[in-house]
Amino acid sequence: MKKPKIVLEVIREEEGFSAVADIADKFIGTQGDNMEELKQNILEVVNLTFSEDGFTYNMDEIELRLPIEKSATSLH
């Protein structure tokens, strides 16, 4: 198995953030009170998820798709 590309969708919650993805038939999901905590949790869950496959990741190998704020997309 080739090392999967990791892309997670980041969701702004009422309190904090969450991130989710379906990669190589595996669901990845985690949350954090702030972006720094979210990144730490993402790294931990991704490495736990793929440890049996022999893959280790660092944050430079993980793409985060951040939410687009409504005000940035409004065309008035």
TrEMBL record:
The protein's name in its UniProt record: Uncharacterized protein
Superkingdom of source: Bacteria
